[in-house]
Amino acid sequence: MVSAKLTPEEEKCMKEVGITGEDVEMYEYSPMDPETREEKCYWGCIFQASGVIDEEGKRFSRRGYLNAVLPKARNNERLQKSILEQADKCEGLAHEDRCELGWMAADEARCMREEGASDADAQVLRESRPPVTRTQKCFFDCMYRASQFSDGKRFTKDGFIAYVMRVVGHDGLKFQVLSAMADKCVHLESDDRCQLAADIEKCLFGQHRKD
Predict the structure, then answer these.
(1) What distances in angstroms separate CA 133 from CA 48, 103, 109, 130, 188, one per listed residue?
(2) Is Secreted among the key words of this record (predicted)?
């Protein structure tokens, strides 16, 4: 039986993730800045149920997002414009892990705002290209810290492996490959957080990139 306080979608996602009704109420009324894997997975489930994430749970759906959100701004042109801009910023976001995908959009929007990055700057990261400008490097830093690849001072091997393993699964061979990649970067540290992010990107992914 569905709780009187929860929608059918909230009830479904609560059971799927394995949390309590009290957890759901706390998530709903707290700022959307998840601190646990369970909270990320709950919101990933909710986003998929509302159409913001596609049926496979791997891509942001611009059409689904607009269908879910625009009706709430029917009489507010300024809000409608903001919603359309947000949809444009998130278009193209994809991730194998639905729990992380829901928060890529939130992290990206926050980092763009904090670092003064444009959609073109964000597209550099989406397309796995190296950052060139100072703004792009600082945007990468913000995203890397959100993903725990970096603490703003040094590369964090444990954070990198934990993040990526949630995507590829706990495969022993993949773990060895990822660990070897991370070992090459453990020496990276800097007082310049933005340059550090560029160095991390080059160390982790530059060797696999064709010039």
Answers:
(1) 35, 25, 19, 10, 20
(2) yes
